[in-house]
Design a protein that fits this description.
mainly alpha; elongated
Length: about 90
């Protein structure tokens, strides 16, 4: 239990340092910081809500892989191979 709480505390400390650094950069030189934050926000938005043309491209590549696998598939599910056991 102590390890989990110490990891949570360390995570919060790291994120607070990142937040403080971003705020100081924003106060000192706001334009590059805002451009960077807009860029990160746009990537996050596209990751969460991808455009339809991009999802269609990814689905088509998956369909072709599945279709090529389907052609190589055998028609019977399994084959019995005679073993070397003596039958009694």
């Amino acid at each position: 239990m102590k390890r989990e709480t110490s990891q949570k505390v360390a995570t919060w400390i790291i994120f607070s340092f990142i937040g403080i650094a971003l705020l100081t950069k924003l106060v000192q030189n706001p334009i590059p910081t805002l451009v960077f934050l807009a860029f990160v926000g746009a990537i996050f938005y596209l990751y969460k809500f991808p455009p339809k043309w991009l999802t269609n491209l990814t689905n088509q590549s998956r369909k072709t892989k599945v279709a090529s696998k389907g052609k190589k598939r055998k028609k019977y599910p399994f084959r019995v191979i005679d073993g070397k056991k003596k039958s009694s």
